[in-house]
Amino acid sequence: MKLTKIVSTLGPASDSEETIKKLIEAGVNVFRFNTKHGTVEWHEERVRRVQKIADGLNKSIGILLDLQGPEIRLETKNKEKIVVTTGQKLRIVPSFVSPDDLICIPHQLVFNTLVVGDQVLIDDGSVELKVLEVDHTHFLAEVVDDGEIGHRKGVNLPGVDIDLPSMIEDDLVKLDMAATNKIDFVALSFCRTKEDIFMLREQMDKRGIKAKIVAKIESKKALDNLDELIEVADVIMVARGDLGVEVPIERLAHIQKQMIRKCRLANKPVITATQMLQSMIESPTPTRAEATDVANAVLDGTDAVMLSGETASGKYPVKAVSAMAKIAKYNEEIRATTKLNIDPDNETDLVVSTVLNLLNQKVTKIKFILVFTNSGKTARSISRLRPKVPILAVTQDQKVVEELTISYAVEGYKSQLSDGVFSLPNKTIDQLIESGRLSVGESILVVHGQHYYDEGSTNSVAIYKA
After folding, report:
1. d(CA 4, CA 411)
2. Residues 245-287: pLDDT tens digits?
3. What is the 3-state secondary structure (H, E, C) of the chain?
4. Which Enzyme Commission numbers does its entry carry (predicted)?
């Protein structure tokens, strides 16, 4: 089995019951719902559809709700595409007033902040504009290269700091929907500082939403504040689309590696995203460069890799997931174990280090690591060392099972532990043999503490033979 998790964006190309089932069987661990598109009703119905199918397959599948956040998008007149040529002058307004207005950016702050000479990038940089004149009613810009501007395409302003709110009204509407549905992760686009995460958490708390927060790093400001965002968020996403526009493209691979390593050191799951198998929107096979990109993310040690348009609107959603799963599995197997410089400062850290040492010594062949955990923290601590065997995390909390769907190599396993005092894991081992997960004679590593409910009390590791 593959150990790297796959996040798949659900959309019109993949939202049928049959396709969802095939995607799960091909290797999807988490479904992403992109709230920039679709109505509340559409998302609500598909969330429940995924849960029903996952239950039928006896699979734990995570649900990630991706909020739009303070993203800047333009609008075109009559929602039509506009072809532009090098040197052409474009007049862009905050709202359509004149019949001659073709493009608007409905954010007055943009017009209050831009200055002559600023760069305006559209659709991940596919169209570049240079500002020639600007006031609060419009700005005039010159097209740098030929291109096409589509309705609702994203706008980036590299080096321009616009004080947009961290959440928009539509985000709050989507959070209301999340409050009445089982959502495991909430992602905030274009978060910039820890205050943005605090604001989201406050809104979630008001609605009683118990979900992990994913901070999407996709701006220069977020990159500058990466350490504080890693500290306060639960999961980090390397959102390379907008990030690759905001920073020099030649830096992106190095930034990705740095971010993944920092997340592992902080024991925070990390998702690598954007254009990983982009050509598979139209093609049944990935390009060699795309296969190498996915492989390198796995070799870097990412917890998860993500598909966006490939599964939401592409022609080959199931093939895209299958290709990603094959690439991930092979590169997990050949990857050298990368050592993290972690100074053990508690018993749990010492146990985690012992687990890795036992695996590296290859004293005996280990089928998987069995971890008894209340919060999932110990399982994630072992996960960040990127072992080459699965981690089965036994917990009483179904919510923890679902939250672990994003963590490398970890599979949650719900089991009732009556009194919280740890006893020998024979009962769990018997259950695993009965279910076919374990065969008599196979060896596993068992990690536990004396009291199941005491977070941070993990202090024992042993090899058990079934």
Report:
1. 11
2. 989 999 999 999 999 999 999 999 999 999 999 999 999 999 9
3. CCCCEEEEECCCCCCCHHHHHHHHHHCCCEEEEECCCCCHHHHHHHHHHHHHHHHHCCCCCEEEEEECCCCCECEEHHHCCEEECCCCEEEEECCCCCCCCCEECCCHHHHHHCCCCCEEEECCCCEEEEEEEEECCEEEEEECCCEEECCCCEEECCCCCCCCCCCCHHHHHHHHHHHCCCCCEEEECCCCCHHHHHHHHHHHHHCCCCCEEEEEECCHHHHHCHHHHHHHCCEEEEEHHHHHHHCCHHHHHHHHHHHHHHHHHCCCCEEEECCCCHHHHCCCCCCHHHHHHHHHHHHHCCCEEEECHHHHCCCCHHHHHHHHHHHHHHHHHHCCCCCCCCCCCCHHHHHHHHHHHHHHHCCCCEEEEEEECCCCHHHHHHHCCCCCCCEEEEECCHHHHHHHHHCCCEEEEECCCCCCECCCCHHHHHHHHHCCCCCCCCEEEEEEECECCCCCCEEEEEEEEC
4. 2.7.1.40
> What burial class does residue 19 get, using C-beta atoms within 10 Å of its C-beta: 0-12 exposed, 13-18 middle, 19+ buried?
middle
Strands 155-156 and 185-188: unpaired
Instruction: State how far Cα 198 lies from the chain centre.
Output: 19
For 11-26, the pLDDT digits (tens) are 999 999 999 999 999 9
- Cβ(235)–Cβ(406) below 8 Å: yes
| CATH number of this structure's domain 5-70+166-333, picked from the four choices 1.10.3720.10, 3.20.20.60, 3.30.2130.10, 3.30.470.10 | 3.20.20.60
For the chain, how far is it from start to end, CA to CA, in angstroms? 20
Show me where the domains of the chain are located: 5-70+166-333, 75-156, 347-465
pLDDT at 422: 53
| Low-confidence winner among 31-45, 226-240, 425-439 (lowest mean pLDDT) | 425-439
- What is the reported pTM? 0.93
Distance separating alpha carbons of residues 268 and 403, to the nearest angstrom:
12
| Topology of the domain covering 75-156 | M1 Pyruvate Kinase; Domain 3 (2.40.33)
Over the stretch 104-121, which tens digit does the pLDDT of each residue have? 999 999 999 999 999 999
In this predicted structure, the answer to whether residue 344 has a pLDDT above a threshold of 70 is: no
Q: Active-site positions?
A: 32, 73, 216, 274
